[in-house]
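Sharing a chain and its predicted structure for anyone who wants a worked example. Both blocks are below, sequence first, tokens second.
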Amino acid sequence: MKRIRVGAIGTGGIFRGAHLSAYPDLPSCQLVALCDVSEQSLAAAERRMKELYEQKAQQAEERGDKETAERLRQDLKAVKLYQDVQAMLKEARLDLVDICTQPNLHAPMAITALEAGVHVMCEKPMARTWLECMRVVETVQRTGRLYQHNENWLWDPFYYTAKKLIDAGWIGEPVMMFLATAHGGPEGNPNFWDAETGGGGSLLDNGIHAIGASWYLSGLEKRPTAVKAAEPVGITIRMPQRILSGQFQQVRVEDDGHILIRFEHPQTGAWSTAHVEGSWSHRDSPDTVIIGTMGTIRFTHENDKRIVVVEDAAGSCRRVEATGPTWEYWPSSFYGEIRNMVECVRKGVRSISDENFGAECSAIVGAAYLSQKRGKRAVTLTEFKRFANDIARRYPDSADAELMSRLLP
């Protein structure tokens, strides 16, 4: 079996903390190159890789698996470090890149790799704006390469198990759900609070998880058609003074976003509605629940196990342990998304979360921002795209900056 050669672009926290740990457990691919403009970040990734691979090699030896131990040590010797993406793409003979940079580099790095003939998987959000996403979509179409929007929630045990139960008809037809991604905010990294770097705040960076998952649970055969900033919170700055880079600063991007999304089936007309919260000011929306025509699904923990609770109209409950093929690895959802893309590249097939999925998730965010600007009036995705494309025509040299300035607080 040919091993897929992978290069990482961006070796900061999300790569070192979540992505890197998947690679030693994936013999179908080989992480051959690390690239980052920061020497410090690159050195930290190299140290972590050495620790991780040697630890895994020793564990393999302890269970008598000399072949795996040898593979891991040889892989470690073969990895190359780069501070220039073009050099890595020219020299490393890559099949796939794993982009883990800040969002302002997501689209440029993806386009550069695709044009070099390399497949791409990229951290969320796909880009800062829907316009940037569409440049990636166009490049995928032109080059014929594969792209995966790395939304790890699709491989999370809770959501994966819930989706299987929905498909099996356990709650009937899904009609409404509440999903949230909320915490107190990434105050340790000022890049998250900079609109030019991130493209937005908590809704784009954090809420994007729940946006992608709500579409997945509603059924990807449906299409997102309309978005509304939800009353009473909408999209706002709730905690305007934060300690960033060691001093109190005024927050310039949203730290809370409550939105409603309508998903419709283009043939049958069936629809479902999702309430999504993306917050850096803690959660204040209802607990996760998926409501169907015959029952509900909720998530809980019991005896250190993840449990999906299905309740029918009579109040009877069934408890199902959240399981799946990748959960023996941690963080399992990141392992799952990386393995999925490696298999897609090996077989030449498109990912479930391809470039169109990523772009539509960003369009949902853009429509939500526009809804907030228009007094929380519902905005169709067609309306938002027309608005964005009009800006692109009027400001061809600064469309992304102009779009962000029109949409953000």
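Comments welcome. The chain has a mean pLDDT of 97.
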